[in-house]
Amino acid sequence: MEDNATTGELIAGLVYLIAGMRLIRLSYLTKEDPERLLGGSFLLMGIGSLLYSTSELLDFEALWTPLNFSGRILYVLAFVFLSIFTRHVFRPDERWGRWIVYATVVFLIAGVGGSAMSGDWEGFSPSSGWYWMELAGYAAPVTWTCVEASAEHIRARRRLQIGLCEPLVCNRLLLWASFAALQLCVLGISTGQYAAFEREGVF
């Protein structure tokens, strides 16, 4: 099971890396912030995932904690970028959207900082309150993304019926909402994995 988890993390990292590089490349052509923000988020997720999986593949215990903590920091930055992306695309003029971004940053920094100061550098301890604070920082932007994309998809379907929306745009909104929903599922599954790791020492 541990080998499967490592393989999944490695594949996810490569997919995120490729998607991120393509979006960054696209941002140079379009000169638009959404591509840059989302590309940066995916790129950081990809590198973070590869660091996590590399720490499992290397039989060198001294590097395990530094690699995991580095991957954790990159994931924090990735989800901050994702939160900024969601505000920029869906709620650029809403003040409360800015507060969701701020809350994401506060929860992530507090969660990571608190657990690191208590000796849990990897963040694999659901028994700690800091873990749940960090998890809230990850869950907030993807929940927000899922809600916004789902609502926009519903509106796009109505416009599609009267010829005011392209089918591809409508489909992309559905895919983006699905991506966010799956991210929430991953957070739940990861929490189960970490709880098992805390008990048994294996993923």
Question: Describe it for me?
Answer:
By secondary structure, this protein is mainly alpha-helical. Helix content is about 85%, strand content about 0%. The chain has 6 helices and no strands. It has helices at about 1-30, 35-55, 60-90, 95-115, 130-160, 165-200. Helix 3 runs parallel beside helix 5. The longest helix has about 35 residues, at about 165-200. About 35% of the residues are buried.
Keyphrases for this structure?
86% helix; mainly alpha; single chain
Characterize this entry briefly.
The chain has 203 residues and is mostly helical.
Fold blueprint:
Blueprint: H1 2-30, H2 33-57, H3 61-90, H4 95-117, H5 129-161, H6 167-200
Strand % is: under 5%
Task: State mean pLDDT (0 to 100 scale).
Answer: 92
Shape: globular
Separate helix tally: 6
